[in-house]
Amino acid sequence: KAGVTQTPRYLIKTRGQQVTLSCSPISGHRSVSWYQQTPGQGLQFLFEYFSETQRNKGNFPGRFSGRQFSNSRSEMNVSTLELGDSALYLCASSRSGTDTGELFFGEGSRLTVL
Amino acid sequence: QKEVEQNSGPLSVPEGAIASLNCTYSDRGSQSFFWYRQYSGKSPELIMSIYSNGDKEDGRFTAQLNKASQYVSLLIRDSQPSDSATYLCAVNYNNDMRFGAGTRLTVKP
Asked: Which of B:72-91 have CB within 8 Å of A?
């Protein structure tokens, strides 16, 4: 059974640019949630999508957005990048949602903003 | 005020000892509680979930929940060097997953 796949694994951007990250969940999983992980702030919830609908959103500015497609694949976009956006972005898939807590994480996309 | 708090550690225990990891949370309406393990350079993986007050055992791991005190703990019995990792406490409140900063555990042979 294939795991959660995130692309790209590494990327370098400059301030002001935008970036799109992709996440393919485990087959049959309808929930995809996104997290930002930094040494200072730990793992912070960005948003969750379930069956193409955003179910919840964390406390991040509107520059962070996402969407989910009919095949459950999800993308997140960060516009007008800032230095502080440098982080590991993790997505997690779940069969029924984050309330069960049974999240399966991808390996992450490490973003560096210069 | 942080919503999920853990001692950052590091916590060091000898091989074979019991490791005790603690977590407190602020939202009294939280319903679901989880422990994730994250090895250095790897992604978190779920090791325990607990939903009701009391203890839940799974092999060498025991999760304890006390909703009145807003407290969750994880006990690792017979600790092994392979248990050396960062342990993340997670709390779900209205589909909002909140993680603690993690406790780094080192098990010394």
From this structure: 88, 90
pLDDT in tens, B43-70: 999 999 999 999 999 999 999 999 999 9
Using an 8 Å Cβ cutoff, are A99 and B92 in contact? yes
Residue B100 forms contact with A (CB below 8 Å):
yes
Do B70 and B25 contact (CB within 8 A), yes or no?
yes
- pLDDT band at residue B2 under the 50/70/90 scheme: low
**Residue range A62-85: mean pLDDT, rounded:** 97
Question: Are A101 and B46 inside 8 Å of each other by CB?
Answer: yes
Higher-pLDDT residue of B91, A97? B91
Which residues does A contribute to its contact with B (CB < 8 Å)? 33, 35, 41-45, 48, 55-56, 58, 90, 97-108
Sequence-ordered list of residues with C-beta below 8 angstroms from that of A39, at least 6 positions apart, any chain: none
Burial (0-12, 13-18, 19+ Cβ within 10 Å), A60: middle
Cross-strand partners of A20: A77
Nearest CA in chain A to B42: A107
Model confidence at A42: pLDDT above 90: no
> What's phi and psi for A41, nearest 5 deg?
-105, -10
Taking the CA of residue A60 and the nearest CA in chain B, the distance in Å comes to 13
